[in-house]
Amino acid sequence: xxxxxxxxxxxxxxxxxxxxxxxxxxxxxxxxxxxxxxxxxxxxxxxxxxxxxxxxxxxxxxxxxxxxxxxxxxxxxxxxxxxxxxxxxxxxxxxxxxxxxxxxxxxxxxxxxxxxxxxxxxxxxxxxxxxxxxxxxxxxxxxxxxxxxxxxxxxxxxxxxxxxxxxxxxxxxxxxxxxxxxxxxxxxxxxxxxxxxxxxxxxxxxxxxxxxxxxxxxxxxxxxxxxxxxxxxxxxxxxxxxxxxxxxxxxxxxxxxxxxxxxxxxxxxxxxxxxxxxxxxxxxxxxxxxxxxxxx
Length: 296
Prior knowledge:
Layout: H1 2-12, H2 17-43, H3 50-56, E1 58-59, H4 62-66, H5 71-74, H6 82-103, H7 105-129, E2 139-140, H8 144-157, E3 162-165, E4 169-172, H9 173-186, H10 193-214, H11 221-235, H12 264-277, H13 284-294
Antiparallel strand pairs: 1-2, 3-4
Helix pairs in contact: 2-6, 6-7, 6-8, 6-13, 7-8, 7-10, 8-9, 8-10, 9-10
Transmembrane segments: 21-42, 72-96, 108-126, 138-158
Main location: membrane
Domain DUF6576: 263-296
């Protein structure tokens, strides 16, 4: 089938992280629709899918979480409501494209994963330590924490970048992020307190991620290392060890037509300039250096 080939092609490309994240969310959503329908037809139970959901969603009980540690990531790909997944995927597409353009695919994936973990951690801490939020066992699922991390990261990196919002007009993304955070805070005393707390955990992670990156520390390196390890296992590629022979101390000349990779200090300065004045303020040379760095 052409759909299967399209999916296979999407996952075979190494520079396609944003589309891969979107596709995984859609595929999981479709799989749960099919599962719910099949279980209902077989058992006449509308909640027949619940055991599978509980196996993949984050439980609020720490003891249960210890037996299902993978849920800290898997929960961030699960949706049931159409408008829930639509809202999340639209924001992931818009803001994820910005993060991917300036920071590259690997850091986009790192933000998604770390945002999910940050959201789950705050959810667990709040529901177990704050008396007002204790309401018995619960589960957390949805990509909102990851998406919020990406939105806040984009707003921290490029606060004055503008989106044209329907019926409103151009709005700087720092205000979009601020409204999202305020709505999440206001929703803590509502029926979805756990979800709102996860949003805030993701928002905090997105902010810290960019601030640390601007300080020269990439919090996503462990995620990238695990991803590389898993990718090598799946592809069957052996890990290679490279030994360099001693050579005269001279800088290697870049290949003809190529660009030398900029040093981290230069990238940090460029990111600071984006934070202050926006992407449009960069020179052509600075844009080339940023693009080259994003390909690492």
